[in-house]
Amino acid sequence: MEKMTIQAGAIEELFGRIRSGGRRILAPVDKSGAIVFDEISSYGQVASGYIQTTLSAKEAVLPRFEEILRFRSEGKGVVFEEESNKALPTVVFGLRPCDARSLSVVSAVFERDYPDPFVRSKIENTVLIGVSCAQSDEYCFCTSVGGGPGDTTGSDLLLTRIDDAVFLAEIITEKGESIVSMAQELFARAGDVDKNSHCAKVSRYFDLEELGKRLPAMFDSPVWDGQSLRCLGCGTCSFVCPSCTCFDIQDETDGPRGIRLRCWDSCGFAQFTLHTSGHNPREVQGKRWRQRIMHKFSYQPGGLGEAGCVGCGRCSRACPVDMNLLQHIQEILEAD
Amino acid sequence: MADFEPKIIAFVCNWCTYAGADLTGTSRIKYASNVRVVRLPCTGRIDFMLLMKAFGRGADGVIVSGCHPNDCHYTSGNFHARRRWIVFRSLIDFMGIDVRRVHFAWVSAAEGAKWADLVNRVVSEVRALGPYEGYKRLAPVRADWRTRDAG
Amino acid sequence: MQDNMRRKAKELLSGGAVRVVIGYGEGSGGGVRALFVRKPEDADRLIYDERCVQNLAVYLTRREVKALGKPAIVARVPVMRTIRQLMIEKQAAEGDLAVIGVSSDGSLLDFPDLKSMAEYVSSIPFELSSDERAAVGKLEKMTAGERWDWWRGQFSRCIKCYACRQSCPLCYCERCTVECNQPQWISVPSHGLGNLEWHVMRAMHLAGRCVNCGDCSRACPVNIPLNLLTQKIIKDISEEFGDTEEYALNTFKPDDKEDFIR
Amino acid sequence: MGKNEYKPYLMRIAEITEETPDVNTFRLEFTNEEEAGGFSFNAGQFGEYSVFGEGESTFCIASSPTRKGYIECTFRRAGRVTKALAAREVGDTIGFRGPYGNVFPIGDWKGKSLLFVSGGIALPPLRCVIWNALDLREDFKDITIVYGARSVQDLVYKKELEEWRAKPDITLITTVDPGGETPEWKGEIGFVPTVLEKAAPASADTIALLCGPPIMIKLTLPVLSALGFSPGNIFTTLENRMKCGIGKCGRCNVGKYFVCKDGPVFTFAQVDELPAEY
After folding, report:
1. Interface pTM (ipTM) of the complex?
2. Do B145 and A65 touch (CB under 8 A)?
3. For C196, which of B70, B118, B138 is closest by C-beta distance?
4. 10 Å Cβ neighbour count for B146?
C-alpha cells in the first residue's frame, strides 16, 4: 500500500480530472442540516464539521429504489424490455472507514448463491475515496466490531487529514491507483507519518465474539421487550444503516407498460413477516428488535462470516426515541 | 404539442351530477369527450386519494361535482365534502400541485347544460395548461430515464 | 417541580392506581428518552426540563404498552391536547389513564379525571406561534411553481422510513392506508410519486386532528419540515371554520364559505 | 451484466382447474422451448409466480419432476397477486422463476413406507412427492395418505383423490371436519389428528410427511410421536412470507436459516432447533 500526500487545495483539481474522466462524484452535502450523499461538481460543496453523515453511502450500490425488470403486455403475451438500470461510473468521496467496510457486507449478501448483477455492476463502477475520522462521538463503536477510525478496509483510496493544508493519501487498490494516476503531479511521496495520531480515539466497548456466543441462548430473554418498549417500529435504523440490505419488490404500471422495482424494507416494520393468512411470527416490537440484533450479531456472522454492523452509530443518532444500539449491546452483555 | 388532448377524470355523485350529465346526453348537447366520468354515491364519498390516484395514473385535470348544498340525497354528504375540499385544495396548492387543474362544482340533475359548459370550460383550460408533465414524470415507470426525474 | 412529579408517581404506583408511569428519563447524547416506571423506587429516575418534548401519548395506543396495565402519563399541554383528541376519537376513555399534567409555565397539575384535564386544555387557545405563522406565510407567498420545486427538494430526501407516522400519537391505525395493496393507494418505493402521495395523505388524515406537537418533524431523520403541512391546515381550519368543539372535518356548518366551487 | 435472477420464465396457462370456490390449480407450459428443455426441479421446490404489474407470489411446484413439459401450482385467492392470478384465463402469460429451495430427499427413502398427512390447501406441497412416489411405485413399500379439510367442498384435487382411492397399492383416508360432510360423503368425519390416531399407520421404516395449518401440525405431532415416528423422520415445508426466494430480501430469516434458501423442506428435528419465529 503506497503512502502519498496531497494538498487540500489540490482536491478541487483532482475532482475536475475525475469528472472529465467521465465519473460523477457523490459526496456528503448538507441539506437542511441532514448530511446526505449527493452528486457534486466542486470540493466547496462538500459538507464539513460533521462526525458522520445522516444517510450512508450504501445508496451508491443499493439505491433506495431501483428497477429490476421492465415489461410490456401485448395481447395475451408479455414482452421484456431492456432494463434501464445501468450503473454510472462513480466516485464516492468522503465516506468514513466504517462505511467503506460496510459495502463488503452488502456485497457479500448480494454475491452469495445468486450473484446480483445490479449490485455487482454498481460496485465495479464505483471507486471509494474514504476520509479517516478525526473525531468520534459516544455513538461510534467501530473498534468493537473490527474496524477503526483510520481502517483502510473497503476503501480504494483513504485520505487522512494531517493538518489544515495536507492529506495523507493511502492507495489501497488498483482503483485507488487509477484515481491517483489521473493527477499524478498533485500527489507527493509521503514520509513516515504517524497516521493514528491524526485519527480519533474510539475505545473498545465490547467483544464481538463474546456477543456472538451469548446471543443464541438469549432468544427468550425479557431484555428484548424491556429495551423495545419505547421503540415506535419505524424503519429509520434500517434505512440509515450502511449494512442493512433487506428489500421489498413492487410492480408499477402505466397502461400496458410496467416495471418491477426493488426498494428498501425494514424488519422493524410490523408487516415485514405478516402472512396473507394474518399470522405474523413477529407480532410485537420486542421480537422485531430482537431480530435486528440477532441477525446482525448472531445469524449474519454465522452465515456470512462477518457481522452485519460496522459500528457507525447512525441508527442510534437517527432514532426518534433514542434506541442506543451500543448501550443496548452492553446491557445484553451485562444481563446474566 | 398542438394536438394535445387533455385527459380529464370527473368524479361525480350519482343522484345529481351523474343524472345531470345523463340529461346533457338526452338533450343532445355536445361537449368535449376528454372527460371520463367516475360515478360515486355522493361527493361525501369522493376521497381525496381518488384525485391523487387520478393524477398519479396520468390525468391532466380532475373535475369533482355533486349536488348543490341542501339537495344532497344523504342530507349532509356535500357539506362534509365542501369542508374537505376547502382544506384539501389549500393543502395541495400549498404543496405546489397545480390547482388550476382541479375543478369543483355543484351540478344538479336538471342542469344538463351546466354540465356540458363545465366540461368544455375545464377541457379548454387544461388544454391551455398542457399535459401535467411535472406530475407524470414523478413515477419511474413514466420517468424519462435520461432526465432521471423520478428521484 | 421534578420532586413533586416523582412523589406523585410513587403515590400512583404504590397506591396501585396505575401499573406504569410513562415519563422522561436521561438518554444518550445529552438528550432524554421515554421512561416506563413500574416500581415506585424507580420513580426517582423521572426527570423534567426543557429537553422533555416528545409527545408520550404515542405510547397510549401501542399494544406492548397497553399490556403493562393502566398508565399514568407525564403530559405537557400538547400531550394533554392529544389525549383530549384521543378521547374524542374513542381511543381513550375516562379511567383508562391518569394524567400528571405540566402547565406551559412548568408547574405540576393534578386532575381528578380526564374530563377536567380536557376542559383545562380546551381553555388554552390553540393557535400557531408567530414563527410558525411566518414560516407558513413564507411558503404561501411563493408561486405554485416555486412551492412545487421547494417541496420536491424536501421530499427528494424522504426515504419512507415512516418515523413521522410512527412518532405521531394520532397515527394509531392498525393498518395504515400505505400498507393496503388492494388497491395500492400509495406507491411503496420512496420515489417522487410515492413520497408526494404519502405526505399529502398523511397531512390530510391529520386535518383537524393534529395538535401541532412537532414530533413528526423532530422524528424525520433527514429534517423534512413536515409539520409545515399540518400547520398550514391548522391555520386554514381556524380561518375558514373558526373554533369547533368537535374536530373540523367531522362536522360542518351549512353556511361554510368557499370561493372556488362553481 | 450477469444473469438477472428476477427475470422470470414466460409461462402460458395451459389448463385451469377450480379445486374449490377460491382455490385454483394452473398447469403452466413454457412459451420458450429451450427454456423448457433446460428446466429441471425436484419435489419440494417452489417458485415465484408473477402477474406482471401486480407482483409475485410464492407457491410450491405441485407437479412432479417425473412428469415433463409442464409444472402445476395450486393457490388460494387471498391477496393482490393471487386475486390477479385467479382472474387469468387459459392462454394468458404469467411469469415463473425458480426452482428455489431445497428438496424432499426421496432418493434416501427407497424401500421405505411413506405416510402423507395433510390438511386443507397444504396437500399441494405433498402432491409433488405423491406423484413422484407413484411414478416410482415399486421403490416404496406401502403408501398411506391421510388428508382432511374443513368441508367436502374444501378438498383439493377431488378427481385425483378418487383415482388414488381406486389404486389397490395405496391406503387413502380422507376426512372432513365434523359438520363439513355432505349426505353422500363416504370418507371419515373428524379432525386429521384423531383420524390419523384411529388409522394408526405403522411407523417402522416409514417416513412421514406432514403439511397443514399451524394448529393441525401442533395437534398431529404428538400423535405421530405416539405412533413411534422420530422427529428426524417427519418432514414438512415451512410457510413464510417471501419476496425474493433466493435468500436476500430477509423476510424468511428464521434463526441462521433463510427458509427460502435453506428450506422450505425441514425435518421436525430441524424445526425443533429453530427459534419459535415461523
Report:
1. 0.94
2. no
3. B138
4. 7
Residues C159 and C79 placed together within one structural domain of the fold: no
Q: Are residues C86 and C162 in the same domain?
A: no
Contact D5 A260 (CB under 8 A): no
Contact residues on chain D for C184, CB-CB shorter than 8 A:
80
Whether residue C103 is found in the same domain as residue C162: no
Q: Which of A246, A294, C182, A104 is nearest to D244 (CA)?
A: A246
Residues of chain C contacting residue B53, judged by C-beta atoms under 8 Å apart = 183, 185
Buried b (16+ CB within 10 A) or exposed e, A126-148: bbbbbbbbeebeebbbbbbbebb
Task: Evaluate whether residue C262 is within a structural domain.
Answer: no
Q: Is D77 exposed, middle or buried (0-12, 13-18, 19+ CB in 10 A)?
A: middle
Mean pLDDT in residue range D140-167: 94
Domain span at residue C55 reads 2-123
- Give the nearest chain C residue to D78 (CA atoms): C182
User: Which cell numbers in the block locate residue C36?
Assistant: 416506563
In this structure, the answer to whether residues C28 and C98 fall within a common structural domain is: yes
Tell me, yes or no, if the pTM score tops 0.90.
yes
Task: Enumerate the residues of chain D whose CB falls inside 8 A of the CB of residue C181.
Answer: 55, 79-80
Instruction: State whether A254 and B145 contact (CB < 8 Å).
Output: no
DSSP string of A26-79, one letter each residue: EEEEEETTEEEEEEESSGGGS--S-SS-SS-GGGGTS-SEEEEEEEEEETTEEE
pLDDT tens for each residue of D41-99:
999 999 999 999 999 999 999 999 999 889 999 999 999 999 999 999 999 999 999 99
Query: Can you tell me which residue has the cell 396548492?
Result: B93
Domains in chain B, CATH or no CATH each: 8-136 (3.40.50)
Helix (H, G, I), strand (E, B) or coil at A145: helix
**Burial grade of C41 (CB within 10 A; 0-12, 13-18, 19 or more):** exposed
D9-100, CATH topology level: Elongation Factor Tu (Ef-tu); domain 3 (2.40.30)
**Residue C200 falls inside a structural domain:** yes
CATH fold group of domain D106-237: Rossmann fold (3.40.50)
B33-42, B135-144, D14-23: least confident range:
B135-144
Contact B86 C144 (CB under 8 A): no
User: Under an 8 A CB cutoff, do A55 and C54 touch?
Assistant: no
Which of C180, C182, C185 should we substitute to test contact with D (largest number of D Cβ atoms within 10 Å)?
A: C182
Q: Answer whether A142's CB lies under 8 Å from A311's CB.
A: yes
Residues C12 and C92 in one domain: yes
Q: What are the Cα distances from residue C223, in Å, to A268, C164, C245?
A: 21, 11, 33
**Do B141 and A84 make contact, defined as CB atoms within 8 angstroms?**
no
A336 falls in which pLDDT band (50, 70, 90)?
Answer: low
Q: What is the mean pLDDT of chain D?
A: 94
Q: Which chains touch B (3 or more CB pairs under 8 A)?
A: A, C
Give per-residue pLDDT as tens, A251-292: 999 999 999 999 999 999 999 999 988 889 999 999 999 999
- B72: which chain C residues are within 8 Å (Cβ-Cβ)? none
Cα distances (Å, whole numbers) of residue A302 to A100, A295, A315: 22, 9, 23
The CA dihedral of D84, D247, A98, A36, to the nearest 10 degrees, is -10
E strand or H helix at D124? helix D124-135
